[in-house]
Structure prediction request, 246 residues.
Amino acid sequence: MRVLMLAAGRGTRISRYLSGRHKSTVDIGGEYLIKYTVEQLKLKGITDIAITVGYQNQEIRQILEGQGVTFYYNPFFDVTNSIASAWFARDFIVDDEAIMIMNADVFLEPDLIDEIIAEEHSPVLFADESRKEEGDYKFYYENNILMKYGKELHGDDITGEYVGVAKIGADFIGIFKDQMEHMINTQQHGVWWENILYTLVDSHDILIKEVEGKFWAEVDFIEDYERILRFRDYRLNYNIEVVHLD
Prediction:
């Protein structure tokens, strides 16, 4: 399995707290978030890892120097959204291999990474049913099939919050890439990469897998960052093993 991480955007909602740093490079207790993710993936046996960079790309490259990561560059990061970042890495998305695509500002506990790697269904987006009204981007799904999506969902139209990760099997890669090319060619470069899957809801089953109590957080707001720090402190204080690579 391959992993593509998208790290080109500015992160304007939390930028005033970061002094110009990229939000994927925040300190999560002695290590950088993006380096933590890469190292955890490598510990799980994932060696084909690519990252699309843009804003503060030299900072990310320096942090990950020597990690064996393939880099792609989105030179239009300030006027496009993450679908363009996925498109610039299109050669990494190969037809005969499953891929995990994630936003690089997402923290995933190791057990959740295991669960994503082991997931056999496709295409599947991951969601947290414990976060509904407080969630940022929300899903409504029935029988694990995505029905509605958006920030504006409320009340009974929310089943869970989107985690920021998808897994796409080899059998769906061709459909995904064709739709991505269509959207880019029709100037839809201002939307998220997930919109590739959202636009296929009417013609294909886009599946949802709940994270079932596993911890995650996406660094969009300072509260998200603080949740990560509290989780990390808890694991360390209770001597729960956290593995680091030198």
Summary: The radius of gyration is 17 Å. Helices lie at 33-43, 57-63, 82-88, 110-118, 170-185, 195-198, 222-237.
